[in-house]
Structure formats: structure tokens, C-alpha cells
Amino acid sequence: MAGEFGAVLRRLREKAGLTQDELERRSGVSVSTIRGLETGKRSNPRMTTVQQLADALALRSGDREELLRAAVPGRRGGGTGEAEADAPEAGTAQAEAAQAGAAQAGTAQAGATAVASPAVPPPPPAPAVRAAPAEAAEQLAKAVAARWQREEEQRRIQDPYPLPVRWKAASESLTDHWANIRRLPPGVPSGPLDLSGRLEGVAETYRSIPSGRLVVLGRSGSGKTVLTLRFVLDHLRSRAPAEPVPVIFSIGAWDPTAVTLRDWLTEQLTRDHPGTAAPGPGKVSLASALVDSGRVLPVLDGFDEMADGLRRPALEALNATTLPLVLTSRPAEYAAAVAETDVLTSAAPIELTDLTLDDLDHYLPRTTRKADRSDPAAGAWQPVLKKLREPSPDGSPAPLATVLSTPLMVALARTVYSDTPEHDPAELLDTERFPGVRELEEHLLDNFLPTVYRRSRPGARGWDPERVQRWLGHLARHLTELRTPDLAWWRLGHGLRGSTRTLVTALVTALVIGLVDGALSTAFGGSLAGGVLDGTVVGLLAGLLFGLVHWFTYTVTGKDVQPSAVRLRIRGRTRSTKWRAGSRLVIGTLGGAFFGSAYGFMVGLLRALSRHAGPASALETGLIDAILFGLIFGGAAGLSFCLLGLLETPLDIVSAVSPGSVLRADRRTVLIQLVFWAPVFGTAVGLGAGVVVDLLQGHLGQLVMDPMSSLMLGTISGLGGALGYTLTLTAWGQWCLLARVWLPLTGRLPWAVAAFLDDAYQRGVLRQAGAVYQFRHARLQSRLARRRR
User: Fold this and answer.
1) pLDDT tens, 388-407?
2) What is the mean pLDDT of each run of 10 residues along the chain (789 residues)?
3) If you write DSSP's letter for every residue of 522-566 in order, what string do you get?
4) Residue 774 CB neighbours (<10 A)
5) Between helices 437-454 and 778-788, what is the axis angle to 10°?
6) I need a labelling partner for 670 at 20 to 30 A (CA). Which of 95, 170, 679, 767 fits?
């Protein structure tokens, strides 16, 4: 219980003769946090915080056990990650405490759980609102594990076995003080940790770091992304219930000058796991609660992919927090950022090493088919590898040996030569054709796409390799201009200028609504000429107004049209969102009133002018119609938005999330909104027209609204409003307009965009990172973007 923990902490602090300010300096925990814990205003302390306080107080085994038991009463399981790491060198009371804590706890789980005691009664059941983040964390762990297990299989990392990614401790100039890394109090001797290891031991290496902060450095293609994937899976397999869930984030998409780290993590978590958008404790989402409570371990992949001017503020923002994390980067970019500011506080850096010829001897021959049954060991790679072992005249390694020292180039070489029997890897030894490393790497990168697209896939359509090169080049350039590695289907239109995007949206919306209005007006009025005239006027006005709404909502502000984080259930729902009727009523009413007023003024003005009325009379008619339609559309939109909220249900955290599943879920949500919005909004407009006309009769002059006019207004408004909202203000609508129509029409993308992207993923050109795609490697994206230019 929080009160018990606060009392124990205060007593132990006073026993050590420390003030709250002195404890802050020793532990690194802010004095406001210490004060809140002692007074009981802060509940559920994070175990990393408890560990820091216990270390700063230099507690003996009994006192340390008491503090841990007060933090998480009644829980059994792993002890502290610091216990085994610090005990060998401490030589003080802290060492005795650490050894005793480790002996009683069993396995070391870096700040995961506390030690249970039979004398302590079981805690009372936690309130549901307080248990929600813990339950969500367990569901998130299952979803993350399932996702990256599928991704590892898709990338063929285990076929035939993982390449031997190894590492060593990085340069001391990139390493913080070991006392900070080991979370030692002042005066306790410290020394470096042994951080060398290989892929299968990455989770153990991380757990041996008391601070929980690891930096993974490696040159392009050295296996950083594969290592993070393996870290997440191994960490989840041995994760204790109270430990945070490792989640991979592509940090290259973060702008630290525009959004804080925690807010960005929350946004990315909501994007990749839409179920976390559901309401959590208080007034925040589950995603925000998970991040703020330390239940998410950020694995920040691709620090080097950030824009040059953003790395320094990013490193400073990371240093402003004490969040445990894993960060990957190329060495040069990280070293440049460190030179501008400082190392990542309390972080232990490791650097990936190159593959050796022995590694290639063991791996590449096993990736080829057996050409000679009489000699199973024979293969296309044996003579090549034998040639690489021969000493060169100047003693320098052969260019091919240098190229094949990274897992990326080995994977490309395997695709081009091992998986394609008609290709002979011996051509890579031709020094006239490939005089250096650059030429060899460009050859492998350039031949990767033609190789994978020459193969036929069961059930997949054939794609022209030349067109594929152009389409993927457009996507690569699109990502390079946006300065992000994330290929999101709802942002494909952002490759166009904002003005072009808005113009296309307005024109297509005008065309669709004009056709609907013209057809219905002809059906109701019986006059084709009248229907065409009304459809033209209404289409142009609707396109203009919806285009302006889109422009001010997204283009001017720079915001994205995000996929819906909820689903709609017309026949009941299992779980409810936090429905805010007041805010929905205000937003719907104001938006509808604005649209109705503008629409009414322009229609009234044009119709008055078409009857050859004078300017004053036309202006008066326009103002009257603006008031009339503003009230009608404002009330109908406010009511419809409120009722729409009743159908919203949060997505499940454990539901599978991929670009295709997010697209399908958003399409279902939008179509159900159309089915609901059109009749409800149309009925509200039709009935509201009669009510408003009766209320304002005489106040604004003689108003006429016959039942047939109300029916026509309601029908056209319902369909037109629903279509306009869908095309301009929803992610699926923008996808249909831009990715399915405009970009294929201009030759930038194929007509079957979703099928093309999924096929590229199945062929290994793209990879999935939650709700978005990414190119298999930044080198491939960069090469395609350059060739496109």
C-alpha cells in the first residue's frame, strides 16, 4: 500500500540521517517524487525508483526487503537486477544487502518485482481503474510477442539459422560514468561491466545493466534492427509480470522540437496498438497511462535516421528523463550528437562487430541448393569463399570480403545468388567490373528488386519489374522528403504539395456530391435541366466548402488524417468509450452551423441573382437562408455526432495490427458511419427544416418549406454530407481519393496499391512495423530514392 511504503521510506531516510534534498542528490529521484511518496500522494511507485532509493540509502538486507515488500506487498518472484551486478565489487553494507536480496529473490529481473513475506497479509484487491494499466500491459506484451514472432519468420532470420551478430563494449568516450550506469551511491567503488556478447544473449546483456539503458551502435547493415527484434522476443519470454513491456519505436520519425518524448511514445503506441486509445485511469488514454507509469520499455531504433539538426535536441530530451530504454544508431551519427551535447546519461553502449570469413563459410554454403548429389558439401559459394582466403598482393582484404562483413549485404547476396541458381556468385570476384566496395554494394542493391520480382508467388499477380522500380522509387523519395522511415497508407498523399492535395480533394468531392445532387434533384423535380443546374451549383459549393474545411483542418496545421482508433457496433457493444456528449454536441453544432450558414448564404444569393433580383434583395435573401440553414445543419450535425458516439467501441489491444488490418478496420468504421450518418443526418435536416421554419415564421419574413422540399433537402443533405465528410475528413476517404485514384492516374503508384504493398512485404522488400510499412533497410530506401531523382 502507498501509505505503508511512504512510512517505511520516511523512517529509513531518517534512520540514515538524510534530508529529502540529500536523498535526491544521492538517488537521482526528484525531491517532489520523494515527498509525494512519503506523504502518500504518489501511489504505486515504479520499481526502478524503489531500487534507486534503496541503493542511495545503502540498506542492509532486512531493511531493503522491508522497503521492497512495502512497494509491492504480497508479490513473489524475481529480485533486483542490481543485486548480482553490484555485489562483487561493493565491499560495503550495500554489497551485503545486494547479496541477501539476490539470495532470497531467486533470479535477477532488473527492477521487476519485490520480495514476499509470509507474515504480510495479502493486499486488498486494487480498484478496477488502477488495475487497468497492469492488465493492459499484459495484453500489450502478448500482442508485441505475437507480432514480432511473425515478423521474424517473415524475414527468414532463422533460415537456416541467425547470422552470428556479436558486439563489444563501445569507446569510453561514448560511455557515461560507470557509477551512473551501475546506479551506485557516492563513495562506492565502481568498474566497467563486461558487455561483450552475441545475438542469443542480448536480453541477458541488457538485464546486467542496472540503469536499464543500453545504446547499440553499428555501421549500416550490421544487424541493429535484427538485434532489437531478438531483444524484444527474448526479453518477453523471461519477463516478470511487473516489468515493463519492450516496444520498438522508429525514432527517426520523432521531432523532439515539436513534441515531447512521452507524448510521442503515446502517439506511436496508439498508432501501432489502437486498443490503447481506450480510456484509462483518470482522463488519459491507456497508452498515456502505460507510458507514464513506466510499463513500456522504449526500444528506439534508428537514431541515425533522424534529421541532422534533430539529433542533438533528441539526445538532450532523452537525458531529461530517467526512462529505461534501448537506443540504436550508427556510430558516427551518435558520436557527433555526443560531441555537441553529452553522452546518453547512465547508458552503457555496445558496438556490433563485423562478420568473419569463418562465419561466411558456415552460413552461405547452407543457403544454396545441393547441385551435386555425390558431393553434398559442394556449392556455388565454396570456390568464392576459398578465393577470399587467399592473401592479396598488398595484404589488404578483398573488396568482396569487406562487403560481406555485414548481415545486410550477406542477405542481399543470398537473395541474388543463393536463391537464384542461374546466378553465379563467382562474378563478384571480377575486379574489373567491381573494382571497389561501393560498386559491389550498389550491384547487390540494384539487383535485389529484379531478382525478387522475377520469381512467381503462388496466388500473386505478376508485376513489371521496371514499373515496380518506379513505384518503389516514388515511395522511397516520398519517405525521404517527409524525413521518416514509416510508410503509412494514410500518408501516401503527402507526397503531393498541400495545395495540390486540397485541390484534388475539393474537385473530387464536388464531382461526387454534384452527381448525387443532380440525380436526386432530377428524380424529385422531374426536370433534367433543373437537376443538372442544381447539381452543378451544389457540387461546386460543397466542393469549395469541404475543400476549405480540409485545408484549414489539415493542410494549414500540418496534421495527418489519422485512422479511427475505435470501431462502430450498431447492434450493441461490449465495451464503452468515454463518451463526452457535451464536446461532441459543441463540435458538431459549430461545424454544422458554419457549413449551413455558408451554404445557405451562397445558395440564397445565387438563386436570388438568377431571378434578376437587385443586390440588396439578393443580400437579404442570402442572409435569411444563412440563418435558416445554419440552424438546421447545426442542430442536425450536433445531434448526429452525439448519437454516433454511442456506437463507438474501443479496439482490442491484442487484435492483430498490420497496415492491411488497420486499413480494413478503418474502412469498416467509415462505411458504418456512412450507413448511420446519411439517414440520421438526413432525417434530422428534413424534420429540422420544418421546425425551424415554423419557429422563424414571420420573424424573417414569409418562409416556405413544403414537405416535398423538406424530403429532398434531407435526402440530398444526408447523402452529400456523409460523402463529403468521408472524402475530406477520414483517412480511408483520403486513401481512396489520392492513393487509389490520383497517384495511379499520374503513374506514381499502381491501381491496386494495397495488393502491391502487401506483395512487396511478402517478397521481403518491405517490412511491417505495426500499422506501417518500412523499407527492408535504410540503404535500400536511399538507393531507390536517388535513382528516382
Assistant:
1) 888 877 778 889 999 999 99
2) 73 83 76 79 70 79 78 46 34 35 33 33 41 82 88 80 89 93 87 90 93 94 91 92 92 91 93 83 84 93 90 94 94 94 94 93 83 61 89 82 92 87 86 91 92 77 86 92 88 86 92 90 81 83 86 84 73 48 74 82 78 81 85 86 73 70 87 84 83 73 71 85 88 92 92 92 89 89 83
3) HHHH--HHHHHHHHHHHHHHHHHHHHHHHIIIIITTT---PPPSE
4) 24
5) 90
6) 767
Cβ atoms of 139 and 117 within 8 Å: the answer is no
Compute the distance between CA of residue 443 and CA of residue 430 in angstroms, rounded to an integer: 12
Rounded distance between C-alpha atoms, residue 166 and residue 126, angstroms: 44
* Structure-block grid coordinates of residue 204: 541477458
pTM: 0.74
Angle at 719 between CA 618 and CA 592, to 5 degrees: 55
pLDDT digits (tens, 9 = 90+) for 449-474: 999 888 777 666 778 888 999 999 99
- DSSP-assigned states of every residue in 473-491: HHHHHHHHHHT-S-B-GGG
For 239, the grid coordinates are 519477463
Q: SS3 for 292-345, per residue?
A: HCCCEEEEEECHHHCCHHHHHHHHHHHHCCCCCEEEEECHHHHHHHHHHCCCCC
- Tell which residue, 154, 143, 156, has the closest CA to residue 761: 154
Between vectors from CA 348 to CA 347 and to CA 349, what angle results, nearest 5°? 110
What whole-number distance in Å separates Cα of residue 73 and Cα of residue 71? 6
How far apart (Å, rounded) are the C-alpha atoms in residues 448 and 663? 28
Is residue 518 within 8 A of residue 551, CB to CB? The reply is: no
The conformation of residue 253, written as its DSSP 8-state character, comes to G
SS3 289: helix
The answer for residues whose C-beta is within 8 angstroms of residue 282's C-beta and 6 or more apart is 129, 289
Between vectors from CA 651 to CA 650 and to CA 656, what angle results, nearest 5°?
170
C-alpha neighbours within 13 Å on the C-beta side of residue 33: 16
Does residue 43 sit in helix, strand or coil? coil
The percent of residues above 90 in pLDDT, for the chain, comes to: 31
Check: CB of residue 86 under 8 Å from CB of residue 132: no
Distance, in Å, from the CA atom of 136 to the CA atom of 143, rounded to the nearest integer, reads 10
Phi, psi of 119 (to 5 degrees): -75, -15
CA dist., res. 64 & res. 70, Å (int): 10
Residues 658 and 641 sit within 8 Å (Cβ to Cβ) = no
